Amino acid sequence: MVRIKCSYPKCTTGSLADRKYNKTYGIKNKTLFSVPKDPHRRKQWQNALGRLNALNEKEVVCELHFNTSDIERFYKTILPDGSKVLMEKGRINLANTAIPIPQLTLDADEQSKSLAQNHSQTNAIHDIEAVTDELNTDALQSEITNTAIDNN
Ligand SMILES: [Zn+2]
Question: Where is the THAP-type domain (predicted)?
């Protein structure tokens, strides 16, 4: 299995440590979106990521770097009585016009917030790097009870 990691600067989504962390704490892995195939749109993503070199087709960007309005998480159904029902999608969708939030144009406040977030995430990952996969290989012992069978 090929492991793919988010191409956004400093993001750890999709890294082995991130997957391990999610697995340990039962957190759903974040969705990774492939970069657009369209060269013009791919260039927009490249700019948003502040990258000098072109993005390769196989690169991905995770859901953390998009406006929530660009991400569809639910199926919306309107019932005959007018009430709305939201059903969570197994796989979230990204609007086909979505561009990652540019990392260099975040205002100072948002930037410090995202730095704080990155910081706490990094610490959490450090904590779990010490966790080793311990498999309990002790075979379960089944007890056999001899019972007398009465054939008569
Ligand atoms: Zn990411």
Answer: 1-103
